[in-house]
Structures are given as structure tokens and as C-alpha cells.
Here is the input.
Amino acid sequence: MSGLPSPADMSHAALVALLMHNGGSMDLPAEAFEPDALGDGRGAHHAMQFVPLDATTVRLSVVPRPPGRGAGVEVRNL
Here is the structure.
């Protein structure tokens, strides 16, 4: 895996990566965009977590956002 985008660009990069890996589109139910699913309607209560599984695979997860202003991208090793 190459270098990660900045935290400010991570949501966009992850969305594009997921869509491209799945043929360019995915079908989601409309309720996937409701405030309860996103946290506060903007996703501000969620953070992205990347876990390298091996040299060629990474797990992308949505996790509770840590408190404070330092929240951003977290990369964890298994």
C-alpha cells in the first residue's frame, strides 16, 4: 500500500477506492444516509481505520471517532 492521503482527503479517497474496487458503483438503501446511520448527518462521529492485513490488502473500517481535535486517520497493525 502506498502512502495514505491526508486526513482531509481520506473520506473522498476511501469512497473512490471502494467504488472502483467494486466496479465503479454500489447500491445502497436510502436509510444508509439517515442521520442515525451517519452519526450527526455529516459523519462527524465516525473515523476511518485502516488495518494492513498483508503486503497487498488493507481493511477499511468505520469506527467511533476519538474525542478531541486530533481525530483523523488511524492506521493499526494487527
Observations:
- The chain has a mean pLDDT of 74.
- The longest strand covers residues 46-52.
- The chain has two helices and three strands.
